[in-house]
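Hi P.,

Sorry for the delay on this. The queue was packed all week, but I finally got your sequence through. Input first:
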Amino acid sequence: MLNIQNKKFRIPVIFSFEGEFFVAAPSQIEAEKYVQENCGLTIGEIHSTLPEGDVGWNFNCHPARKVGCAKPIRKKIILD
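Then the structure:
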């Protein structure tokens, strides 16, 4: 069996989720403000601080993925 030393690389990746929030608000400007200030997304959870009856959403759980070019890691980084 060959003993091959693996090299380590840093690879930039962008995950992009696209979807819609449905918001009850007195105006379009207020609706946009509500989403900007009160709605977000983290891996595994879509959330809002708006009242439950005033907001809904439709997001695909699988993001688009864009992978950049690999670059060698020159300094020692411990990978768990």
